[in-house]
Amino acid sequence: MDTQTLVSVGMILVTFVIYVGIAIYTRSKETAEFYVASRGIPPFWNGMAIGADWMSAASFIGMAGTVMVMGYDGLPYIMGWTGGYLFLTFLLAPQLRKYGRFTVPEFIGDRFNSDVARVIGALATVIISFTYLVGQLSGSGVVIGRLFAIPTWAGVLLGVGIIAIYATLGGMKGVTWTQVAQYLILITAYVVPIVFMSLQVTGNPLPWLTYGNIVDEIGAIDREIGLTEYFAPFSESTQSQFLALMFTLMIGTSALPHVIVRFYTVTTMKAARWSGAWALLFIGILYLSAPAYAAFSRFILMTQVAGQPMGNLPSWVDRWVDTGLLSVADTDGDGILDWEEIAVAEDMVVMATPEIADLGMFVIGLVAAGSMAAALSTAGGLLITISSSIAHDFYYRILRPDASDKKRLNAGRIAIFIATIVAGLLALDPPGVITQIVAWAFAIAGGTFFPVLFLGVWWKRMTTQGAIAGMLVGLATTLSYIFLALGGFTIFGIEDTGAGVFGVTINFLTCIIVSLSTTTPSQEKQDEVVDLRYPEQMTYKDGEVWIKEEDYKS
Predict the structure, then answer these.
(1) Is the pTM of this model over 0.85?
(2) Quick check: 201 and 300 in contact, CB under 8 A?
(3) SS (H, E, C) 437-470
(4) Can you state the angle between helices 239-255 and 76-87, rounded to 10 degrees?
(5) What digits encode the pLDDT tens for the residues 66-97?
(6) What is the pLDDT of residue 18?
(7) Which residue spans adopt a coiled-coil conformation according to this UniProt entry (predicted)?
């Protein structure tokens, strides 16, 4: 094992000790701690935990690489994900928090007084979270595979073992405080390299101010060698695909069960809104940095690696070729590696850039630790969500309503362990790159849940039959389009990653048509829906708004 590997592995092991220590110290002892951290997380720290929950391997490892490879056409990921948080913060999270449940399926089941709706919601939650989890485990395989110079599939198996131990120790309470630590590690690991790259290339340590000039220089190089100019719009996809992908990611963000459940961990609606605001700030730091990461990485590759003799390539080239994420080939036989002869996978860009830019072993180790933090933080939240759906919505609410707290906790931990193993096996042969797999999860979440949640909160005429029909039709439409698009069938050039635009539209239409065709909900249920629009200190009933007695006296 060389010095670089020792440093990287050592830094990762230190972070593992921190995570496990936090999980043991905050170990959940009752179901309220396990599922919603007893609703006692302050908004600032919850915002940071949401940031870590959100910044998955797709964001940390995949997003900058996607922008680097696709240029302008990779930007829907940034715009869609950020816009989705605005939807969630203002239109759904405070209202769902006021309803006061543990999970998204529980809200749907109780809002529509239907165990059928609850079961459909729980099944969809498991499908969405498994899809997302496969992407995260695949990301952890990239990191571990590179560190130990082993194939990515072997890295996936090691990652599964680590996550299974880590996730079963804590519940939501342990996961929350672990995610706070993971956010601090991953954001430091993401920003430090681009500060050094900006200094190295421009002499200015503020990459957010300098990368625009680098984009201009990349465009000039592209024109010189006859390529489509970098950041030229719609060179890698169609305009319809651009818009559909952005819509899918935006709506999907608002409907992801593992993101929504984080807003159940605070005390009030106001705290839920502040959690969303803090989360936007913390997430924005990474998202504003991703285009700079992509520009500097591409510029260094084009100017310092392309054009070199094949026999004089840097030592890191062979290591990344071994992972299967980089290929170089002297196809024209001139002995020189041209830019067109380099094939870079999106998933290697962030991990490889510190080596490409020769930033030193500690920066490389820091990025490795940050990558693992990103993969683990989202995986932890997803596993809690899967566990909640199986142990709370299925086991407790449907099968064993008289189950003790101890049995429910054991059921949750068993569900986490089994889910980790199954997702790990699926991640051994991922059906796409990380960002693509994650985009499917967003499409399914938006197509299944967003119309039902949005109308369930804001439309008192929404009925049980409308919700059930909407979820089934939306889920079936989204899954069908993903498989058809993978087989080559598309509508208006929209690919599998933009499938949510069809699922959401048909789900909305189904909910409205079926609801208007069925019996109007009771007045009590309609008042319950209108009441969600007011702060906790107020209650809506019989057409009037009442201030609660205890708040009035104070």
Answers:
(1) no
(2) yes
(3) HHHHHHHHHHHHHHHHHHHHHHCCCCCHHHHHHH
(4) 40
(5) 777 776 777 777 788 778 888 888 888 888 88
(6) 85
(7) none
